[in-house]
Amino acid sequence: MANETQDASQATVNGDNAQSLCDVVRGLPSRAVVDLWSTGVCTRCILRLFGIREHDYYRSSLSRSILSSVVGDSEKHLVDSNVREPVVCRVCLGILQFTYSVDNKLVVERESASELAVSISDLLRQQGFQIDSFSLEVSIPPIIQENDRIAWLYMKRKFESELWFQGKSLSECISAKDALKISLTEILETMLGCKSSISSFHIRLTYTHRIASITVDSSNEGCKRRKTGSGNGLDRINDDIKCSGFLTSEADAVVERSFVSLQANESPVCLKLPLEQSSEPCCLEFLCYRTQIYVGGRYLKYSRNVSQSCWIIDDERMGEASVEEILGSNVLPICRGDNYKFHAAGREDIDVRMLGSGRPFLLEIQNARLVPSDDSVKSLEIAINNLENKLVGVKNLKLVDSQSWDLMREGEAEKQKQYVALVWISRPLKDEDLHFISSLKDTHIQQRTPIRVLHRRSPLEREKIIHWMRIEKIVGSSQYFLLHLCTQAGTYIKEFVHGDLGRTQPSIGSILSCRAEILRLDVTDVKMDCFLTE
Amino acid sequence: MNEYIGDETNHAQEQKEHEIEDPELHKLILPNAEDLPLIPPSSVESNFVSYFAPDFMKPRHDQYIYRHANGKKGGITAIDFNVGKSDRIGIKVTGKRKKESNSALCKVCTNDATYIVRCCVKGSLLEVNGRLTKQPDFLNSAADREGYIAIIMPKPADWLKVKDSLLSLEDYKKLREVS
Fold it and tell me: Where would I find the Pus10-like C-terminal domain in this sequence (chain A) (predicted)?
């Protein structure tokens, strides 16, 4: 029922539009209109060459009989009974006639923009996209822009003496791309129920033409040849001509001069376009996608058997899971995206826990079918924190924009990190040790690349700073203690404790003049401003 | 006057920073003393597998190799040299060629003799222990740790060739009758 009323109203609308369209066409200089029609230019291209901008005229369907009758009324003697709207326009190659091929095989002819819009909105629904805005992008073969200029110059040659041509300029013409957008945008807005604006959701229409792309190259070469041949001061014209599709005004001069040289031999001025009249329209590919959305927050890692990123060597996984996969696999289905990428501000070893305020991270979700609401994200945070195995936790989970990326990377190398290590030394702990360790501030250490990472990092000696340290005694043990320390980012803590065969100096062992070993390490604070609780 | 107060607040601030304020966090990090082993495994024991090449080139000149298995790409080995007890030891490093195979690593001078230490494993030479020139007695006093001579990265194929001729820790102990 709803569909029927919709169709009926469309018809009335089209009926109204068809009437006003006829009026507009009748208002144009009929000689020019008929002339252009007979040389194979479609009505909508004629409209845009004359600078007609109202979108209604582009939307409505064109009945061929109406068209010829429009002009026929007043200028019947000019009309050849065979004048019709061309099947495939020579200028726009079918684009503004909503005629296109799919996969270079099936040719589709649409009566109006609304039918194309329906195909688009069907695709959206099929893919399951939920949107609150969209951005329409159109890509057309460059030759069409060239065709516009040639058609305009043709009109100028033929009709410049006419009254109606006075004062007109090429800049008034509407490009094919703009005309297409004009015809589609409002319809899409109505069908999709949201506005066209700068959006993360893109609808992209890509038109290509098999032959046209080859012809542009050869026509450009043709221009070059004429350039060297004529010697009319055309030597100044540089490589601008080579840039496809964007001809400069100097290039216009070249094109015009080439007209002159052609017309010198032929008396009637005719429209010579690079492409021969073709029955082959452009091939259209349309796709809908959403650009990346970001979910950020801080993660905690409670397990000593979970790596940060997925770590698989020779089909064997290291550890029982990864933070990346746990978070990604929980967020991705909520956004119904294609896949995710995990980024974090630094990392910790698989056997090191991440506690305290957590480590900032970003999950990049690609082609999300929907953008989750704030409430969704809050529930997601609770769900992750209540997972049965409690390997990983999250804090401050929320949707963020791409600037957060810079925020996270910014100053990553300067930020301080705080740790607590379980240390054993080869002799009993003395009270002087506690005081001495606490007194050391901003200690500089030299670290050679630890042996355990030498296979993947360059062998360098790096200077790092230990900002402060504090020993916490453990009840019941004289040789074990907790070492709290705050260091510069990039410091290898384990090597600082055991010395790495003397390659980190000083080390806890050398400072306390004994052998020291580290049993466990936890990160307790990543001192960064991003993704903190507000 | 103001500066003085400033210092006080800074000090209190620092104290506060260094305390772990969160009792939950503290519970997580505090170990149970009873669970801790009397003497924990050393970093060398945890990270490396030891191999021994007894009587390499000369009788009673044993070489230790610590092998770190960094993934499957080929491990890093550290080599130590057992010189035996001598009073004075000087060491001079010879050549720093990238690929070594049974070629000289360094020269060791003791009271009565000069030895050229050769490498028992073929591989790229990553690092020679520069500290030995200043503290050559490490060779004796810390032969199994700071007294390592060099770090080599062999290709997996080269390592496998040599591996079978080397002894494990247990076998070496039996051979040399040490505990």
Answer: 294-526
